[in-house]
User: What shape does this take?
Amino acid sequence: EADIYQTPRYLVIGTGKKITLECSQTMGHDKMYWYQQDPGMELHLIHYSYGVNSTEKGDLSSESTVSRIRTEHFPLTLESARPSHTSQYLCASSLREKGKLFFGSGTQLSVL
Amino acid sequence: QKEVEQDPGPLSVPEGAIVSLNCTYSNSAFQYFMWYRQYSRKGPELLMYTYSSGNKEDGRFTAQVDKSSKYISLFIRDSQPSDSATYLCAMLPSSGGYNKLIFGAGTRLAVHP
Assistant: This one.
């Protein structure tokens, strides 16, 4: 079983609050990703990192930001949450083989 | 038009049935083809991984890639209730970065006893 952890699993929060979604992996993977998933829709990449101090935006525009100060840790931050941010956020990591991703269990975010 | 098309289902089958799940794609540059399984309230997990064309078998699961038709399939033999999940196809071109992975929207499968 993959060792990638996301907290919290569920988060209900009011508009305007700052939130940080945590993601950690213990596999030593250099590549990490954040995907957004809405019911019945494709996973969309919002951020990725190929290593420490390397972060890039994905194809789906997002108001969130990420950081990669340590290999194992890839947190996602929303400075001011809005109802349009309500979604499931999935963190993943990979090593060398393209497309072989290990996913966390996700954070279901609801912004009221 | 989406690069990857996948019938959302739901697909409901009796236990023991053979299940066929499919995806079509438009980008002929795709070379890596994956099937992920996602249980409710969980993240996807990699089920099958193939490079270029051909078949790959792993237990009750067989993945097929037909690049001439731009069509991939996942077959599940002797389906079990524990196979009930959403199945996502995913694909990637050989060139370009790891961030070029494209997912289908997923097919929901329900296997009833």
Notes: Chain B touches chain A through 24 residues (CB under 8 Å). The radius of gyration of chain B is 14 Å.
